[in-house]
Amino acid sequence: MADPLFADADCANIALTLGEAARRTPYKPAVTAAAGRGPDGRLRYAHLTFRALEESSDRLAWGFQDLGLACGMRTILLVRPGLEFFEILFALFKVGAVPVVVDPGMGLERMLACYEATRPQAMIAPPRAHALRLFFRSRFRGVRIRVAVGGRWGWGGKRLATLRRPGRGPFPVAAVGPAEPAAILFTTGSTGPVKGAVYTHGGFAAQLRAVARELSFGQEEKDLSTFPLFALFYPALGVTAVIPPLDPRQPAKADPGLLLEVMEDQGVTNLFVSPVLLERLCEFSSARGIRLPFLRRVISAGAPVPPRVVEAARPLLDPSAAILTPYGATEAVPVAVIGDADILAETRALTDRGYGICVGRPVAGIEARILQIRDEPIPRWEEGLELPAGEIGEIAVRGAHVSPAYFENPRADALHKIDDGAGGFWHRMGDLGWVDRRGRLWFCGRKSHRVVTSSGTLFTVPCEGIFNTHPLVRRSALVGVGPPGHQVPVLIVELRKTSRRIRRAVVAEELLDLAGRHEMTRPIRTVLFRDSFPVDIRHNAKIQREALAAWAARRMRMKSARSRRGSGSQP
């Protein structure tokens, strides 16, 4: 990717990447989206070329400027992925406004809290969301500029369709420096409080360079991302973004057949998908004898990717295609990446033995360290903080594409940022892991999910890797019941669906026998079963262990109460 961002030292606006792509490949589709079915039953598509997207976002930027949108204005962007989403996004970048992006699946109260915390000055959303703004006026107190996407329904403000200003020519992109905020992207809060990660224009540029280096896109690449926010990368990289027909609040429930139809129609070369949806795609395709020879690479992320899912995907692809499982977070992505060749040839066997999940080597531009496990803030880097290779600790990263701060959240900054003493910072990922002798990172679960017993600490992902080798286990979750330091480790199991009857008591005995063969899992003596696990809202893949721990505690209390009643003792 050509990098125009710092050719002019006075301007590092990420919107310049679109202009560069429009000059290189003006008539190549930038964004394509399904637009319903025709009379023949086939999907129809709408698209914008790079030149059309550049010009349409220019027209919108003029309209936004006339409306009063200006540099630095925090702007709620609540628009479904599609052609208009990209027009609006790049128009906001061009005027220098700061989009505030919240996952709509996080629930109403959390979403409203995010908006209230960022004190937005503008809002671009469909009429239904503007009705919400009127109903919860105190949460949107600072919103003065209102734009309705679609009809206005009498909620005030301007309709997006009336803001396009033809005939004015190219919009003069706002001259922002690399340290200026470009967007505020909220974490889902699946493993803690929601936080607004501040992305700078320079950080976005570094992130785009990292993605381009790792993926090595060709000239005619087309991407389908089932996680809408990841699709933001592609028009800026000169890659066609194909928007799939799915509910962005529940991506894992997308119709595999419909996704395959879109991929084949559009000749998609790059697929970004959560591990859960990848597994569903593999099951659907394998059952029908479908192969995916058009894909050059499959990227799966958002939660640990089980090696068995990688193994299931491999036969569906051309031998030259790659399966990549990058590691990162809202605040820092990508951090590391590993491919299917290493997973299937080597690291899978080690995952099965309790080593954790290997996420590969840090990408260029990222430094990674393993720190002592601490729950309190670490204001400044200190001697003895880093652990030697082979020891499990907290993963911390440093690099140009790591978000520098959370929006006006000093407590979150204190818990996650460490002054490096040289004008920079380390970001604490909140994840546990270790580094092997080849410099590869191994993921061992969230720090907040470790189980601290009176005799030691158990780490979730390494322990679960052992139990997941049982042929009837689809996935498992290790949780702790009780106060830290005196927690009881409990294994919760979701079984595979099978036509034959499964006796859970027998499976539990087999799992406890398996636990007894490994030192790390020997303390686990309680197994519970659930038909399904609660998962995160963004990728529908991360297991919500906090909810499972509360459920396990209730189950154990009920079992204890029944036992006391059965023995005749008083409760």
Would you kindly provide a written description of the structure presented here, covering whatever features stand out?
The longest helix is centred in the last third of the chain and has 22 residues, at 545-566. The protein is of the alpha/beta class and 571 residues long. It is 31% helix and 24% strand. Mean pLDDT is 91; it is low at 1-9. The chain starts with 15 loop residues before the first helix and ends in a 5-residue tail after the last helix. The strands form 5 sheets. Strands 15, 16, 17, 18, 19, 20, 21 and 22 form an 8-stranded antiparallel beta sheet that branches. It has a 7-stranded mixed beta sheet with strand order 2-1-11-10-12-13-14. A 7-stranded mixed beta sheet has the order 7-6-5-3-4-8-9, with helices on both faces. It is built from 15 helices and 27 strands.
